[in-house]
């Protein structure tokens, strides 16, 4: 019965996940006219859940019937043997009736215990799934002796850094790189070249396979994760917003921020005009994942968060690649303001947005190919120039 309940919870989880994915991606489904496929997927998941439920009822039915039959057989044998000994005169009619009543009194607790045993697997299966999730340990955690850091200047060094996934696929191979405080460095390269991985290693979303990364001369593995990540701000292309108010999402950058701090962040992120158009201003509910906001508005909220967080190190992960040109220019101004005075790493998609960078680093699966300013690299007629010219020819 425990297995039957476990199957029910597993299939119910997949069923709910499928519904959530279908609802979240409804516009994609409609744009491809794939409603029949989604219905087919829904029916499949529904049938899997239904089968596990039927199997549970079957097991429970057999168990209940077996227990019911066992109890009734006890009653039957009590009557037969009681009548037999009464007829033989070994017990009186009163003793016989008393025995039957006493037997029934004992049977009732047995029935209750049996009902509890039947309900136990259901509760245990759910509790088991809960404890399995709660007992999962993060793959990356603080090392023994890790210390909390604060007020980092932002000198970043990659020292002979290599990284490979668990299946052995190598992404980075013996990377050596140093970034000075306040420097803006852009990473460019084809998809899969490792530029995003290079930046994800800094906040320890992944651990290096070999080598080390240091900030201000300290190995990041010797820092506590919480303190390290508080020193790094990340603005991504796909901004995640919580289903609350605009104010709550901005304040997520600093949960102790005052109203003055929030207003200042709004101003720096060029969000004032957007807020003026909102029916309730900062207290407007923005919906699930910020569905009521445009892509550019979401980016400005993310930038406002970073102004509140005020980290010394900033990672911009293709933050404007999905925006139209006019919106991109406005967002780029906000990003430039945000990057001012911070060590900034930019994962670039549109090369026109990184011409202002102090350094541009061309990354490939062979490592760092080129390193310099836009003017220097373009004049070299190497990999960067080919990438730049290819993008502007299209």
How is this structure best summarized?
It is found in: Cell membrane. 53% of the residues lie in helices and 15% in strands.
Notes on the protein architecture:
- Residues 1-122 form the ABC transmembrane type-1 domain.
- By secondary structure, this protein is α/β, with parallel strands linked by helices.
- The protein contains 13 helices and ten strands.
- A six-stranded mixed β-sheet has the order 6-7-8-3-9-10.
- A hairpin with a 5-residue loop joins strand 1 and strand 2 (170-179).
Order of helices and strands: HHHHEEEHEEHEHHHHEHEEEHH
CATH architecture of the largest domain: 3-Layer(aba) Sandwich
- Assigned CATH superfamily of the largest domain: P-loop containing nucleotide triphosphate hydrolases
CATH topology (fold) name of the largest domain: Rossmann fold
Q: Given the helix and strand composition, which structural class is it?
A: alpha/beta
Poorly predicted parts: none
In angstroms, what is the radius of gyration? Answer: 33 Å
Mean of the pLDDT scores?
Answer: 82
User: Which outline best applies?
Assistant: elongated
**How helix-rich are the residues, as a percent range?**
40-55%
Q: What is the class of the largest domain in the CATH system?
A: Alpha Beta
Number of strands: 10
Counting DSSP H or I runs of 4 or more residues, the number of helices is: 13
Largest β sheet strand count, sense and barrel closure:
6 strands, mixed
Describe the SSE topology.
Blueprint: H1 2-24, H2 26-31, H3 35-87, H4 93-135, E1 156-164, E2 170-179, E3 184-188, H5 195-200, E4 210-215, E5 218-219, H6 225-230, E6 232-236, H7 246-251, H8 259-268, H9 272-277, H10 295-309, E7 313-317, H11 325-339, E8 343-347, E9 359-364, E10 367-372, H12 374-380, H13 383-393
Parallel strand pairs: 3-8, 3-9, 6-7, 7-8
Antiparallel strand pairs: 1-2, 1-4, 4-5, 9-10
Helix pairs in contact: 1-3, 1-4, 3-4, 8-10, 10-11, 12-13
């Amino acid at each position: 019965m425990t297995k039957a309940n476990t199957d029910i919870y597993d299939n119910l989880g997949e069923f709910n996940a499928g519904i959530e994915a279908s609802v979240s991606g409804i516009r994609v489904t409609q744009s491809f006219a794939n409603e029949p496929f989604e219905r087919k997927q829904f029916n499949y998941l529904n049938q899997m859940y239904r089968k596990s439920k039927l199997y549970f009822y079957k097991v429970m039915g057999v168990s209940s019937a077996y227990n019911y039959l066992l109890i009734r057989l006890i009653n039957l044998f009590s009557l037969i043997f009681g009548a037999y000994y009464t007829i033989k005169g070994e017990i009186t009619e009163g003793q016989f009736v008393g025995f039957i009543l006493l037997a029934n009194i004992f049977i009732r607790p047995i029935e209750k215990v049996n009902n509890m045993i039947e309900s136990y697997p259901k509760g245990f299966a759910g509790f088991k799934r809960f404890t399995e999730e709660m007992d999962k340990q993060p793959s990356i955690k603080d090392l023994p002796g890790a210390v909390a850091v604060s007020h980092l200047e932002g000198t970043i060094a990659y020292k002979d850094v290599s990284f490979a996934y668990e299946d052995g696929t190598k992404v980075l191979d013996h990377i050596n790189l140093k970034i000075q405080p306040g420097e803006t460095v852009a990473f460019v390269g084809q998809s899969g070249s490792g530029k995003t991985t290079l930046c994800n290693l800094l906040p320890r979303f992944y651990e290096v396979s070999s080598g080390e990364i240091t900030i201000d001369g300290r190995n990041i593995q010797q820092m506590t994760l919480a303190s390290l990540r508080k020193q790094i701000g990340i603005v991504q292309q796909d901004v995640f917003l919580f289903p609350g108010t605009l104010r709550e999402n901005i304040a997520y950058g600093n949960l102790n921020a005052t109203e003055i701090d929030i207003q200042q962040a709004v101003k720096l992120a060029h969000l004032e005009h957007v807020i003026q158009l909102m029916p309730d201003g900062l207290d407007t509910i923005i919906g699930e994942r910020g569905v009521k906001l445009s892509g550019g508005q979401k980016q400005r909220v993310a930038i406002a968060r970073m102004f509140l967080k005020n980290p010394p190190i900033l990672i911009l992960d293709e933050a404007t690649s999905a925006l139209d040109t006019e919106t991109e220019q406005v967002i780029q101004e906000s990003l430039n303001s945000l990057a001012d005075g911070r060590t900034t790493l930019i994962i670039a998609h549109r090369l026109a947005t990184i011409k202002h960078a102090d350094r541009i680093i061309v990354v490939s699966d062979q490592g760092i190919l080129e390193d310099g300013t836009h003017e220097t690299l373009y004049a070299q007629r190497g990999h960067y120039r080919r990438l730049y010219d290819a993008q502007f020819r299209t």
